[in-house]
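> example.struct
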């Protein structure tokens, strides 16, 4: 079992930055690839970024490339999502997830409860 707890969400103006954190507990963090998803109101959940177990590989959806950076600290069981140049369309609840399969983030076994990010114009 892995418990995931996100933090760092909030209200930010267009062009601003936020850093989301997700702390894992309950199992060996480095056994899992980690992903960030988001879900806006009345929209389907989408995968934003993924990082493999050793942080050697990352994936970003096209709309966030160059603005978002996923990273992880295995010593502290934490995955981060640095979000810069935020846009109103980035407004969503952001979830972290843990998966054994880097190429299958949608098969994540464990999910956090989510943290709200609101970008105001």
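> example.seq
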């Amino acid at each position: 079992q892995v418990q995931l707890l996100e933090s760092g969400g909030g209200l930010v103006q267009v062009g601003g930055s936020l850093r989301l954190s997700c702390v894992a507990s309950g199992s060996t963090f480095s056994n899992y690839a980690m992903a960030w998803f988001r879900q806006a109101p009345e929209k389907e959940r989408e995968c934003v970024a993924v990082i493999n177990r050793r942080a050697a590989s990352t994936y970003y959806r096209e709309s966030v490339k160059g603005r978002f950076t996923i990273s992880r600290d295995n010593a502290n069981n934490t995955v981060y999502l640095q979000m810069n140049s935020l846009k109103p369309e980035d407004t969503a609840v952001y979830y972290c997830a843990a998966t054994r399969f880097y190429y299958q983030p949608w098969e994540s076994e464990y999910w956090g409860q989510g943290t709200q990010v609101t970008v105001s114009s």
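> remarks
The chain is about 0% helix and 50% strand.
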